[in-house]
Amino acid sequence: MLLKLIKNVQIYRDGQWKKSDILIAGKRIEAVEDSITLAYPGLETFDGCGNFAIPGYIDQHVHVTGGGGEGSFITQVPPLKFSDPVYAGVTSIVGVLGTDGTTRSVKNLVAKTKALNEYGLTAFCLTGNYNYPSPTLTGSVLDDIVFVDVIIGVKIAICDHRSANMSKESLIKLASDARVAGLLAGKPGIVHLHTGSGKSKLDMLFEIVDETDIPVTTFRPTHLAPKYEDAMRWAQRGGFIDFTCDPNDIEGRAKQTAQALEEAPEGKLSLSTDSNGSMPVWNDRKEMIGIDAGKISSLHETVKAMTKYVPFEKAVIPSTANVAKALNMYPKKGCLAAGSDADIQLLDSGLELKTLFANGSCMLLDGELKAKAYFE
What is the structure's pLDDT at 39? Predict the structure, then answer.
């Protein structure tokens, strides 16, 4: 088993930033101590230079195969490059489809997800897309979640002019299938919901949790920053809420996320990027008048900007511990402790990423990419 020792880093533990050493055995953290002295043949030692050590980010909404197409084929967003999450400090990813489940497919999504795992990151994905009935790999949402190792739930869209405008009964059936599949397979079994700017907002979700026995945590609405009041209501009901980074307004989204972190029940707020997903601009007639794309780099940019409003150790929680808990990955992911996966970011005093470990492998060292992918 390969051993690595990271010396001289600052880790937030016991309520304060403390000088620490981290011992890695294979893919796991073996120990986090004030000081670790070890002599072992083949031991790799890294000087942390006093940098801050935090868990690798978990981005639960990434269009790994690319998104878009709302303005014809020339507006399709390219797929995610392996180096992009590495430079962004993201070590765990959940891949999704969006509007396009025709030229992009669940097969393509699963293949890309498996490729990211082969490169050393941790990657899962969601079956389905905006359409209903949901496109799947096996012909069944339930079977996809139960039998396909990397699929942990299903995605759908509500309150959006591009959605399938599914009925409440159909969403109840979909959620029931996802929940049972999760129970059978030991997976989150979630319904991840793109929420648009439509008139109904989250009304259907509130009705379902009022009228049925489906747990509120089965439903995972995202893009909730523009629906702040509904998001707070949902969190107060015990639901998880997800805000999306805005690459065109990092400061504004950081301030709002920091506010939500203070107001929402503890552990309920997460942050994701919609990376490589299209961000079309619509006029009042729902005609596309512009288009942009999500960027995975916006996650750390937003966390960094949040430190103007909350301490750094609190700013990282929505993209580390909170999302790990929401996806049933904690404490394997989302923290730096003995037994956790060795997903570790080292950041300098200006909070710039210097070094990154994913599952114990050094992906980035002093700003230099150490793990390389084909065709980059």
Answer: 87
